[in-house]
Each structure stands twice: as C-alpha cells, then as structure tokens.
C-alpha cells in the first residue's frame, strides 16, 4: 500500500522528469527506491590479492604433502582465508626444521664450544631455511586470523615474550567463521 507521502514524491519526480530536470533512468531508479526501499546492503567484497596470485584450490584431505606445500604456493599472500589444517600441517614442518636445527647446533659443539666446518654449514643452511619459511608462516597466520574474521595484525602477538606464541597457537585452534566474511569466502566451502 502506498502512503500519501510516497505518492506525492512520485508525482514530484514525474513533474521533474517532464520538465527535463531528471532523466527517465533517474526517475525510474528514484521511483523504485521510494516504492521498494533501498537495496539491501551488498555482501562485503573479498580482499584483492595485490600479487595477482590466483586462489589455490585446497588439496584432498588425505594429501598431507599438498597441505604442507600449500602455504609455500601462497608464499607472500596475506589476503584471504586459510583453514586450520593448512596452518597446522605447515607449522608441523616448520617446528620440525626448528628442532632439527637446534639439535644440529647443540650436537656440533665440542668441549670448547666451537662448531666444525660441517656444523657451521648446517647451522647456516638451517637458519636460511627457517628465515625463508618465516614469510609463508606469517602469511598463513594472518590468513588464519582472517578466517576467524579478525585483523591480521593479531600476528604481532607473537612478539610478546613467553606468552605471545602460546596465545597465537591457542587462537589458531579456533575454527573460522562459517560462510563469507569481510576477508573472503569460506575456504572450507571451496
């Protein structure tokens, strides 16, 4: 049912159209807005990847190697969302490399605290590997926070001594929001 105010507004719009003040298209758009209200708010647009990397399809659930390699395929992609499986599979390898590196450093020291040539080489290689994997580690953490509809800046919690990493790991256990959110579509639905 159209009330008097809406009818008067449509008549005024019609008069403006006939006088050439507004176009036919503007008249129709304004009339629809008056009759049916404004359009519902559109869904948030997913974040655009500035590196132009196309979204990577998720591997099969039993493809462990695929899940481990997925953050490397999305190396510096800080946009979009990631699943818990993607984070934890990559974190498992990162921590394993860290432990191996730590054991190599500890095992290569002799009684005088010096490392041999092979030990120094291994320490260097492990440090380079860990530094090279730091970017995808941070990227997958940011995407996990995005999956929970949180800002990626929460990754800075890692800088809090002693408890920061534990806080982040605890937050990584939380399931993401269902359906689309402001950071993109649900990674589980694709």
Strand content: under 5%
Evaluate the radius of gyration.
Answer: 28 Å
Termini separation comes to 43 Å
Helix content: 40-55%
Query: Which structural class do you get from the secondary structure elements?
Result: mainly alpha
User: Could you tell me the number of beta strands?
Assistant: 0
Q: Could you report the average pLDDT, rounded to the nearest whole number? A: 81
Provide the domain count.
2
Low-confidence stretches: none
SSE order, as H and E?
A: HHHHHHH
Tell me what you see in this structure:
Helix 4 (84-107) packs antiparallel against helix 6 (134-147). The protein has helices spanning 4-18, 24-36, 64-73, 84-107, 117-132, 134-147, 164-172. The mean pLDDT is 81. It has 7 helices and no strands. The chain has 190 residues and is mainly alpha-helical. InterPro entries: DUF805, SHOCT. It holds the Pfam family SHOCT.
Give the key terms.
190 residues, 7 helices, rod-shaped, SHOCT, DUF805 domain-containing protein, DUF805
Short description:
InterPro entries: DUF805, SHOCT. This protein is mainly α and 190 residues long.
Write the layout of secondary structure elements.
Blueprint: H1 4-18, H2 24-36, H3 64-73, H4 84-107, H5 117-132, H6 134-147, H7 164-172
């Amino acid at each position: 049912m159209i009330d008097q105010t809406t009818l008067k507004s449509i008549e005024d719009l019609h008069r403006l159209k006939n006088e050439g003040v507004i176009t036919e298209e503007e008249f129709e758009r304004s009339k629809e807005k008056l009759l049916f209200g404004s359009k519902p708010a559109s869904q948030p647009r997913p974040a655009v990847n500035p590196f132009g990397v196309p979204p990577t399809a998720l591997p099969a659930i039993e493809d462990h190697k695929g899940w481990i390699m997925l953050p490397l395929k999305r190396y510096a992609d800080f946009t979009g969302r990631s699943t818990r499986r993607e984070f934890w599979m990559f974190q498992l390898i990162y921590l394993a490399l860290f432990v191996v590196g730590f054991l190599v450093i500890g095992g290569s020291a002799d009684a005088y605290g010096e490392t041999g040539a092979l030990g120094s080489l291994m320490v260097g290689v492990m440090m380079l590997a860990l530094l090279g994997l730091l970017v995808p580690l941070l990227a997958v953490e940011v995407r996990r926070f995005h999956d929970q509809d949180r800002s990626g800046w929460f990754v800075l919690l890692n800088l809090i001594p002693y408890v920061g990493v534990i806080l982040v790991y605890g937050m990584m256990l939380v399931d993401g929001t269902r359906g689309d959110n402001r950071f993109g579509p649900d990674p589980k639905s694709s």
